[in-house]
Specification:
Number of domains: 1
Radius of gyration: 31 Å
CATH class: Alpha Beta
CATH architecture: 3-Layer(aba) Sandwich
Number of strands: 5
Strand content: 5-15%
Structural class: alpha/beta
Helix content: 40-55%
Distance between the termini: 103 Å
């Protein structure tokens, strides 16, 4: 009798275990918890743009930024230089060259010292060029991405490409002259110089020969060995008055031609010094 009871208990326990091991039947019209994961794979996350291509404000520069917004709202500037301290320097060491070559063309200087590509993007998203459609925008930006953070060249190039795209969207009738980042450092193989050279190789193809043109004028600032000349770059980065004269001379013919193609009235060109042999692409 006792053996029979044990056998019945064992059989009952086996049935219970098998029942617990079976999955619960799904309610009609519903899916089991694992079905959604199997049928609909989780999409891969979209990569975030690099810092160099993500707009960010530049603390301490808002007063100058707002002045550019006011110039933009006036809508009068026919030529705009957009960049960092090297561009801002047209108001300092480059003032004589500016007054001679570009002020007569109705030019405005949108350069801010210390700006990196993300700062220029932020400016473009916050009022710069709102209401302004210049015949030509001259862009030279990126050296602070190398000097401040040693950004990978591909990331700096992505920031520059984003700037060009913003300009094309905001100023569809304007032409853009994109300049290669100028050389820097006291030797040809300076680490920041190498980074800038790599960026230049990546941004040259942005030019389409119709609205966007690329020109590398770095050679006008260097000696035969490729090292920047101290009389043109006293601190191996920023330009002297003669350096600005060379910059003007290297692009003046291109500026007047591109402005003319954009339909802007251009005064009779003033002869300029500097190397202007290489035409922009």
């Amino acid at each position: 009798m006792r053996t029979h009871v044990h056998l019945v208990v064992a059989m009952f326990a086996s049935v219970v275990c098998q029942a617990m091991a079976q999955p619960s039947p799904a309610t009609p019209g519903t899916a089991s918890p694992g079905a959604a994961t199997q049928d609909k794979p989780i999409p891969a996350a979209t990569p975030s743009p690099p810092v160099a291509a993500t707009p960010a404000p530049h603390t301490g520069t808002m007063q100058r930024h707002e002045r550019f917004n006011a110039i933009s709202k006036e809508g009068k500037a026919r030529l705009v230089f957009l960049g960092d301290s090297i561009t801002q320097g047209w108001e300092g060491a480059g003032k004589a060259a500016w007054d001679e070559h570009f002020a007569p063309l109705g030019a405005a200087n949108f350069g801010i010292g210390g700006d990196r590509t993300e700062h220029v993007l932020w400016r473009l998203d916050h009022g710069n060029f709102d209401g302004l459609s210049p015949a030509l925008v001259v862009v030279m930006i990126g050296t602070n991405n190398a000097g401040a953070r040693r950004d990978p060249p591909a990331e700096t190039a992505a920031g520059i490409r984003a700037i060009v795209e913003r300009l094309r969207a905001k100023c569809p009738a304007s032409k853009i002259l994109l300049l290669g980042i100028f050389p820097r450092g006291d030797k040809a193989d300076d680490v920041f110089r190498r980074l800038n050279d790599e960026v230049n190789a990546l941004i040259a193809p942005i030019a389409d020969g119709e609205r966007v043109f690329y020109k590398d004028i770095g050679a006008v600032f260097t000696d035969a060995s490729g090292t920047p000349r101290k009389d043109l770059m006293p601190d191996w980065l920023h330009l002297s008055p003669e350096g600005y004269q060379r910059w003007a001379g290297a692009i003046k013919a291109d500026v007047t031609r591109l402005m003319g193609e954009a339909g802007a009235p251009v005064p009779t060109p003033v002869p300029a010094t500097g190397n202007s042999e290489t035409a922009p692409r």
